[in-house]
Design a protein that fits this description.
By secondary structure, this protein is of the alpha/beta class. Helices cover about 40% and strands about 15% of the residues. The chain is built from 11 helices and 9 strands. It has helices spanning about 15-25, 50-55, 65-80, 115-135, 160-165, 185-205, 210-220, 230-240, 245-250, 260-270, 300-310; strands at about 5, 30, 60-65, 100-105, 140-145, 165, 170, 285-290, 290-295. It has a 4-stranded mixed β-sheet, with helices on both faces. It has a 3-stranded parallel β-sheet with strand order 1-2-3, with helices on both faces. It has a two-stranded antiparallel ribbon with strand order 6-7. It is found in: Endomembrane system. It holds the Pfam family VSR_TRX.
């Protein structure tokens, strides 16, 4: 098997490196970082006509490795040594409690183009398997949502007020990238918070898998394109699932308060990398037993095989 070891060029996207290596005959690709740092999650380029032609056609496995490990491999190959590299997930399993614990960093925004479509396809396609595994006690799932904050000096600006809640503490980009029309970033933050609270309340009733029902139903019934991405539509979905609306409202708190929101503060803290796991900075990001994973979002097949293989 031919495995290419590439060194990062900042002017060439990770995905393009892999695509070029695949076309050159590689069966797998290792991309070495160009600086000494904790491993990060590699993103795909912004979707455009050029990148769309190759991103969905990458079929070989790929991974980012540290600079020091890359240099060792490069030296060994240059010295003519026999190098055997195994791409293996077993180092991250089994978990001490004999179940796979995984997190999905997601977003309720449905107007961010191809990435939003891919993410929602993943959620819809994997929902059934996720719920079966959770009900059987084979997995422990936790959804997460990235938020940003507005610098203190700009919290009273029009942009911060339209994108943030709790006086600039928790923000999301404008869905349409246009401050003059459509939905605002704070609308996304509020819905993300509502989805966190749906999970919290469902978990308290020992039905955490209801989160999957809510996010898929909300996506179908309350899309931005139909101007239904709002509180009324969300509460209709919540009621149809038999969740306690009052508990969810209490959980969400006051988005206009000049104070921390407990759940969103926990989310910001969770974004920070710990140990060998880097910061979560891009969406979607999947973390399996504290190991970050990114790939083409045909992830239901990957995750189903991976989790079921460990249970």
């Amino acid at each position: 098997m031919l495995i290419n070891v590439l060194f990062c060029d900042p002017d060439c996207f990770f995905a393009l490196k892999v695509w070029n290596a695949q076309n050159a005959g590689a069966s797998a690709v290792l991309v070495a970082d160009d600086i000494d740092e904790p491993l990060i999650t590699m993103d795909t380029p912004e979707e455009d006509a050029a990148s769309a032609k190759y991103i969905e056609n990458i079929t070989i496995p790929s991974a980012l490795i540290s600079k020091s490990f890359g240099e060792k491999l490069k030296k060994a190959i240059s010295d003519g040594e026999m190098v055997n590299v195994n791409l293996d997930w077993r180092e991250s399993v089994p978990h001490p409690d004999d179940r796979v614990e995984y997190e999905l960093w997601t977003n309720s925004n449905d107007e961010c183009g191809v990435k939003c479509d891919m993410l929602m396809d993943f959620v819809k396609n994997f929902k059934g398997a996720a719920q079966i595994l959770e009900k059987g006690g084979y997995t422990l799932f936790t959804p997460h949502y990235i938020t940003w904050y507005c610098p203190q000096a700009f919290t009273i600006s029009k942009q911060c007020k339209s994108q943030c809640i709790n006086h600039g503490r928790y923000c999301a980009p404008d869905p349409e990238q246009d401050f003059s029309k459509g939905y605002e970033g704070k609308d996304v933050v509020i819905e993300n918070l509502r989805q966190l609270c749906v999970f919290k309340v469902a978990n308290e009733t020992k039905r955490p898998w209801v989160w999957w029902d809510y996010v898929t139903d909300f996506q179908i019934r309350c899309p931005m394109k139909d101007k239904k991405y709002n509180k009324d539509c969300a509460e209709g979905v919540i009621s149809s699932l038999g969740l306690d609306l009052r508990k969810i409202e209490k959980c969400m708190g006051d988005p206009n308060a000049d104070s921390d929101n407990i759940l969103l503060k926990e989310e910001q803290d969770a974004q920070i990398g710990k140990g060998s796991r880097g910061d979560v900075t891009i969406l979607p990001t999947l973390v399996v037993n504290n190991r970050q994973y990114r790939a083409r979002k045909e992830t239901p097949r990957f995750l189903s095989n991976y989790i079921s293989g460990q249970t």
